[in-house]
Amino acid sequence: MNVSQKPPVTISPEHPRPGNGAAPAVERFEYDNRIVRDFAVATIIWGVVGMLVGVLIASQLFAPAANLGNQYTTFGRIRPLHTNAVIFAFVGNAIFMGVYYSLQRLCKARMFSDLLSKIHFWGWQAIIVAAAITLPLGLTTSHEYAELEWPIDIAITLIWVVFGINMFGTIIKRRERHLYVAIWFYIATFVTVAVLHIVNSYQMPVSLFKSYYVYAGVQDALVQWWYGHNAVAFFLTTPFLGLMYYFLPKMANRPVYSYKLSILHFWALIFIYIWAGPHHLLYSSLPDWAQSLGVVFSIMLIAPSWGGMINGLLTLRGAWDKVREDTILKFMVVGITAYGMATFEGPMLSLKNVNAIAHFTDWIVAHVHVGALGWNGFLTFAILYWLIPRMYKTPLYSKKLLSIHFWIGTLGILFYAVPMYISGFTQGMMWKEFTPEGTLRYPNFLETTIQLLPMHQMRAVGGTFYLLGAILMAYNLFKTMAAGQLVVNEAAEAPALEQAYVPTGSDTYWHRWLERKPIPLLIGSLVVILIGSMVELIPTFMVESNVPTISAVQPYSALEVQGRDLYIREGCVNCHSQMVRPFRSETERYGEYSKAGEFVYDHPFLWGSKRTGPDLHREGGKYPDSWHYHHMRDPTSMSPGSIMPAYPWLLDQKLDISNTSDKLRTLEQVGVPYDDATISYANEDLQKQAQQVSDRLAKDGIKVDADREIIALIAYLQRLGTDIRKMENATK
Questions:
Q1: Do 497 and 107 touch, CB atoms closer than 8 A?
Q2: N or C: which end of the chain has fewer CB within 10 A?
Q3: Whether 111 contacts 162, CB under 8 Å
Q4: Which top class of enzyme applies to this chain (predicted)?
């Protein structure tokens, strides 16, 4: 049915006639298109911004000059800006755009509150702006996809509650008894994202823009990737499946292929997905049983994921002639196909023998972007192209530009993904290759880095193509808006929902009852996602044998705490891991493999997910202090060919020690065993250790004051891995 037409008044099982035979009363109301338009415009703008930052950081990985020579635009600081911009700004606004449009029409009701809609919109944009300001300033928690500091996390929680109230208020006042499958996915998205965000954001504030996670080491890693994997599942996947179930049948003018398959798809997906997070931590210090659970459920995840893809593609049965002619449907088909590819590859990457090669490489980057660019990007583009002309009652400005966007976007995905696959395979193989004599063939990490530069250049070309397509879309859609006039309040009518309801023979299917009950559906979704969460998290926190302690491991000194925070501020974890896996290739290159007990005082954990540079967990004592000084001043002076940017500001800026005692006191509150004397005399101890580092540098002819940031960073780097080394030496 064309959305511009008024829905006909029909008597159906959802709207039975009352006992006296009178037809249900028809109620007239209006849909709110303004809020949909607002989220659509935000989606377009933030999409272009996020992709532009993406092209910049892609360029930084082969052209260090693209770091622009200042501390606010280095790869380490703006890489999280890119991920937050595309996930929460571009995709987030797209979700709300699609939900606000489809929910009103599926419920035959205006949104519960126009005021809540406005608060939601402006609150979400304010959060995005706060992220865009704080992340380049280095105000970050370092948790991937959850880098924002605690005041912004609280704001996210409040705005998410506003969204939930508005959504459930609309569902409760609906005029359509049946809750369509898209709404099931919206409900599961709301409740699961709330649980993930709250648990993963459990921090102890030091100040307004500094906090430490309550969790440490292994437990922090498990919580983060329980969150990180399921942020992909319940922010980038389930809401978009809901949008697919609504918009694809509308675009193709075909019913969903299988109602029963949609039921199986929904419940199996949300139950299985929540278990799969540990597959991000294979061969790490995470307990083996948790790793194995992640692998098993990741393999099982293929079935419901492909069930959804098949349900989407088979919805187009009998309409493939339209796909040849309709570019918007082409976007949908490529997007759903990319979803199928990514959800096959994910379980494959969770196999231990595959993960042993792929983890920490560009293969993961390729995998993520097939889903992000294809599934999220192309579905968003299709929905925008379909919605804007309808809300503005005017044809799309240019079908030719639409077609160009499709092809340049598809080429962009290919030029991005294929070089990254090649790069990933190359990395994995080069890191593991030995000579016939039994030594590493490529012992210098830079040999791999230099080999990958052409692939990184191709990746930047692909990203530029994709960005150009988004810019063409923005021009096309804004010209369309200028040519038409927004129907702010779209007139509609529907029969009133009868409160007295007598089930009919067609309602005997068990799931029908649940489809009419939003609160039981909410509770059911919550229970399903909590099962896997509790099975994985509770034993890891409660059973001490999961994280055996090591007596030699001691808390960081005050100076090392400050240095570690500088490491986090500069985003070093975006390029360097701190997790030596138990492979001969890694122990030969880096040293003894990492133990769970080494991380008990790490708030947050810094294991990393990508090795653009070498692992640093055994960095302490590997080089003299002067090496680190020169390496931060000019990386190429120590490592010719390095793509790492210089950090000259660390040599000039004074270390802020006004909050040293507060940091140690906060860490003591989350379990680090600092005593009162250590906290009280923190700065005295810090200055003493800093002077020792400064004196060692002076012996090598480097004059640097003991109060500079570089001193603290060197102290932290020289500490890494030394506790285990001391213990090993003591036992010899």
A1: no
A2: C
A3: no
A4: translocase
Cis check: omega of the bond before 518, within 30 degrees of 0: no
* Residues 412/462, Cβ–Cβ less than 8 Å: yes
Task: Say whether the peptide bond before residue 673 is cis (omega within 30 degrees of 0).
Answer: no
One domain, residues 262 and 358:
yes
Q: Is 120 annotated in some ligand binding site?
A: no
Whether residue 570 lies inside any domain: the answer is yes
Query: Is 462 found in the same domain as 603?
Result: no
Task: Give me the CATH number covering residue 604.
Answer: 1.10.760.10
- The answer to whether 369 is annotated as binding is yes
Contact between residue 32 and residue 117 where contact means Cβ atoms under 8 Å apart: yes
What DSSP designation does 458 have? H
Encoded tokens for 435: 């000579």
Do residues 114 and 224 share a domain? yes
Q: Annotated binding residue at 617?
A: no
**Tens digits of per-residue pLDDT, 79-137?**
999 999 999 999 999 999 999 999 999 999 999 999 999 999 999 999 999 999 999 99
Q: What is the dihedral of CA 164, 168, 169, 170, to 10 degrees?
A: 110
The DSSP symbol for 22 reads P
Q: Rounded to the nearest 5°, which phi and psi values hold at 318?
A: 80, 0
Q: Where in the sequence is the domain holding 579, given as residue range(s)?
A: 558-731
- Token match 């005082």: residue? 601
Residue 505 is assigned to a structural domain of this protein: no
Amino acid found at 143: H
Question: Are 532 and 595 part of one and the same domain?
Answer: no
Predicted pLDDT of residue 549: 84
Q: Is residue 241 part of a domain?
A: yes
pTM here is: 0.94
Which of 537, 569, 588 corresponds to the end of one domain? Answer: 537
What's the pLDDT score for residue 10?
Answer: 33
- Region of 571 (left: φ > 0; alpha: ψ -120 to 50; beta: rest) is left
Query: Which DSSP symbol is given to 492?
Result: E
The reported pLDDT for the residue numbered 2 is: 39
Question: Which segments of the chain have a pLDDT < 50?
Answer: 1-20, 500-502, 504-505
Tell me, yes or no, whether 593 and 452 share the same domain.
no
Helix (H) or strand (E) holding 434: none
Unique residue bearing structure tokens 């987030």: 92
Q: Is 628 annotated as a binding residue?
A: no
Cα 566 to Cα 156: distance, rounded to the nearest angstrom: 26
Is 223 within 8 Å of 278 (Cβ atoms)? Answer: no
CA 707, distance to chain mean position in Å, is 37
List, in sequence order, every residue forming a beta bridge with 30; answer none if it has no partner: 491
Residue 470: CATH number of its domain: 1.20.210.10
For the chain, the domain total comes to: 2
Q: Are residues 422 and 276 in the same domain?
A: yes
Q: Do residues 311 and 248 touch, judged by C-beta distance below 8 A?
A: no
Contact 234, 525 (CB under 8 A): no
- Of the three residues 508, 537, 566, the one that is the final residue of a domain is 537
15 is in an annotated binding site: no
Same domain, yes or no: 488 and 571: no
In a domain, 409, yes or no: yes
Rounded CA-CA distance 207/329 in Å is 50
The answer for 393, left when phi > 0, alpha when psi is -120 to 50, beta otherwise, is left
Is the Cβ–Cβ distance between 486 and 34 less than 8 Å? yes
Q: Taking the chain, what is the end-to-end CA distance rounded to the nearest angstrom?
A: 79
According to the annotation, is 229 in a ligand binding site? yes
What is the C-alpha to C-alpha distance for residues 272 and 297, in angstroms, rounded to an integer?
A: 6
Q: Quick one: 532 and 460 in the same domain? A: yes
